[in-house]
């Protein structure tokens, strides 16, 4: 466990775990991932730019800036919500993930990935002290090759909306709604957020309200909903 800079030493959330996994296991994961790649193109949505070849933060930022810039050029309102997920990779519901794997990937992957996720254990070491062994009941393995891809599969069915633009990078999500009328732009954004809220509850994911924000981009200087 590594203490985060400037954080209280007695607070358990002040520490970042560095996960050590066996090298042979990572080699096996790479082989499995290579077999999965051709199926992932049909599974991962086009708005997801995280952990995908040929995609990155720069490309996703360009996409967002383009939508906002076009709205300002055409004197439209652009209502946006930027969502952050709490402990995203650590809170993945195993039963829900296995359901989606069975639904989205060829059947041969299911028993392998089920075995990969189940009956994993961990222990925590701080300096010379080591904790007891505990069973991992949720989340994808930290520091693994397959972990990020499994998270993308788990969130692949994030609801879309016809009147908004969705942009995701791993667990960070941006929703943009543009319209000449500020109330209509805000209403479309709220409709999409309502769908996402219902989806989050269904799949046991929690948004971080402290890090999630709403912004209205416009050239008109007055109050906005």
TrEMBL record:
Domain Reverse transcriptase: 1-225
Transmembrane annotation, as ranges: none
Keyword Transcription applies: no
PROSITE patterns referenced in this protein's UniProt entry, alphabetically: RT_POL
Stored InterPro entries: DNA/RNA_pol_sf, RT_dom
Keywords per UniProt: Nucleotidyltransferase, RNA-directed DNA polymerase, Transferase
Keyword Phosphoprotein belongs to the record: no
Pfam families: RVT_1 (PF00078)
A GO molecular-function descriptor: RNA-directed DNA polymerase activity
Protein name according to UniProt: RNA-directed DNA polymerase from mobile element jockey
Organism whose genome encodes this protein: Eumeta variegata (Bagworm moth)
């Amino acid at each position: 466990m590594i203490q985060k800079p400037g954080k209280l030493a007695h607070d358990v959330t002040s520490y970042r775990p560095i996960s050590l996994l066996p090298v042979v296991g990572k080699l096996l994961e790479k082989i499995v991932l290579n077999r999965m790649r051709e199926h992932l193109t049909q599974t991962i949505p086009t708005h997801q730019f995280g952990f995908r070849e040929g995609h990155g933060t720069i490309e996703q930022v360009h996409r967002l800036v383009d939508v906002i810039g076009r709205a300002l050029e055409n004197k439209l309102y652009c209502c946006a919500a930027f969502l952050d997920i709490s402990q995203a990779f650590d809170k993945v519901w195993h039963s829900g993930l296995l359901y989606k794997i069975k639904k989205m990937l060829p059947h041969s992957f299911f028993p392998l990935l089920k075995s990969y996720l189940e009956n994993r254990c961990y222990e925590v070491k701080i300096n010379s002290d080591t904790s007891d062994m505990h069973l991992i009941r949720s989340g994808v393995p930290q520091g693994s090759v397959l972990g990020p891809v499994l998270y993308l599969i788990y969130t692949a069915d994030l609801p879309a909306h016809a009147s908004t633009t969705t942009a995701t990078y791993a667990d960070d999500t941006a929703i943009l709604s543009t319209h000449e009328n500020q109330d209509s732009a805000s209403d479309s954004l709220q409709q999409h957020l309502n769908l996402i809220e219902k989806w989050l509850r269904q799949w046991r994911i929690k948004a971080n309200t402290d890090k999630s924000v709403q912004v209205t981009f416009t050239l008109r200087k007055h109050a906005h909903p």
